[in-house]
Design goal:
The longest helix is centred in the C-terminal third of the chain and has 15 residues. Strands 13, 15, 17, 19, 20, 22, 24 and 25 form an 8-stranded mixed sheet that branches. Strands 1-4-6-9-8 form a 5-stranded antiparallel sheet, with no helix packed on it. Helix content is about 5%, strand content about 45%.
Length: about 425
């Protein structure tokens, strides 16, 4: 509907229906306003109402048409700025207004138009409606729940903190921001930590056209531990508002390649993913974190998560290549607040078998060799665990050959 904006309240009194008599303003050249004249009836809605609450509906409204002497039966049109408000008889002189759902508080414009063959007359009501009789100011605070340790100014480990207010009308509040905890937190106005700040107080304002206002800054933590943010303000009506957010700082650990034996006989965190052989990947943590909450996922490439295993300090995933070519990128996600999570990039390779010829050259005094066939097999098994990360398997081409010491130099020269 084409109703004057709420900003015209300086002209029309809130809660009172405006009058429309088809007035014409009278001016003389070079003078100020002198008066007005009217040769039409006057239209004004009724009753006046400043606020429509839960107990106001259904509400009866009537169009008062004064000094109408015409013979044409006038018609009426009721309308509202909110489609939730419905009129039982939108074309009658008297109607009932109902509301499907009430907001907490909002502005409202209602109008009635009278038509009787000439220029129409219109009357407006500038009011409010909702479960609250006055506009409510809401305070919000957003901060990460989980922060990764940043002890070397890594730009990917700066986290956004934001405070904001919302209100349906113009208001202004001063928000006080405070931080506590032993995380050795640092603050900056930018997302890479170049411009250091000390957040303390910020003024936030809303208007009828901009009903929310926000202020953001960034934080990083150099110590593992717990911290918290608090935002507090006092509204123009005297209401004290507060919001708080807690967070904890951890250090996710992507363990080094081949550090511990894995269930499949190889080692955790191989540098390659051998087609046809599953690989185990493992991450750890410094700090207080429930490792059952680590989420393993395939970021890209031909692979799938076969299974996972968790201890109090580690989380592991068994990964399988679903194609014999490509690269599989696997991620272990600690929460959802960090843009970068521990990842493993594993090129898919084929398993290769490498034959080994073994010679035993040292003979003890009693003629028994201190190195046996079984000893060499055990050494190859140990080597295979290490080289399994690249898909290489060593095997004995034939049983070891025992050589006198005098022949060792000759055999060595043959294999160089």
């Amino acid at each position: 509907m084409n109703a004057p904006l709420l900003t015209s309240w300086w002209w029309d009194t809130p809660g009172e229906w405006t009058e429309d008599g088809g007035w014409n303003w009278l001016y003389l050249p070079g003078t100020n306003y002198l008066g007005y004249c009217c040769w039409m009836p006057t239209l004004q809605g009724a009753p006046n109402v400043s606020h429509l609450g839960p107990d106001s509906f259904p509400a009866e409204f009537h169009a008062v048409l004064t000094d109408y002497c015409g013979t044409t039966q006038p018609t009426f049109q009721w309308s509202s700025s909110d489609e939730n408000i419905q009129f039982s008889s939108p074309h009658a002189q008297t109607t009932m207004a109902t509301c499907d759902s009430l907001p907490s508080w909002a502005s409202l414009v209602m109008s009635v138009q009278a038509n009787f063959g000439g220029p129409p007359l219109e009357s407006y009501l500038y009011s409010t409606y909702g479960t609250n009789e006055t506009p409510q100011v809401a305070l919000s605070l957003s901060a990460p729940e989980l922060v990764f340790l940043n002890d070397d100014n890594r730009t990917s480990r700066w986290y956004r903190v934001s405070v904001g207010i919302s209100c349906e009308v113009e208001t202004n509040v001063t928000v006080t921001i405070s931080h506590s905890g032993s995380t050795n937190a640092r603050f900056a106005s930018d997302s890479i930590g170049e411009n250091s700040i000390t957040p303390s107080q910020v003024n936030l304002s809303t208007s009828y056209s901009e009903r929310t206002a926000n202020y953001s800054f960034y934080m990083a933590s150099a110590n593992i531990g717990d911290g918290s943010f608090t935002a507090e303000c006092t509204t123009p009506d005297g209401d004290e508002l507060s919001a708080a957010r807690n967070y904890k700082v951890i250090e996710p650990l992507r363990k080094l390649v081949c550090t511990d034996e894995a269930p499949n006989g190889g080692y955790y965190n191989p540098s390659r993913l051998v087609y046809g052989t599953n690989a185990w990947l493992e991450v750890g943590v410094n700090g207080n974190y429930d490792m059952t909450e680590v989420e393993w996922r395939i970021v890209s490439g031909p692979g799938r998560i076969v299974s996972t295993a968790t201890t109090s300090q580690t989380s592991a995933a068994c990964v399988e290549a679903t194609s014999d070519t490509g690269e599989v990128v696997v991620e272990a996600a600690f929460g959802s607040d960090s843009a970068e999570q521990p990842q493993f990039a594993l090129p898919v390779v084929h398993k290769r078998r490498v034959s080994v010829a073994a010679y035993i050259t040292t003979v003890s005094a009693n003629g028994q060799t201190p190195i046996t066939h079984q000893t060499i097999e055990r050494k190859l098994t140990s080597a295979n665990r290490v080289f399994s990360q690249s898909g290489i398997e060593f095997y004995l081409l034939e049983p070891p050959t025992v050589l006198p010491n005098s022949q060792y130099a000759i055999v060595r020269e043959q294999y160089q």
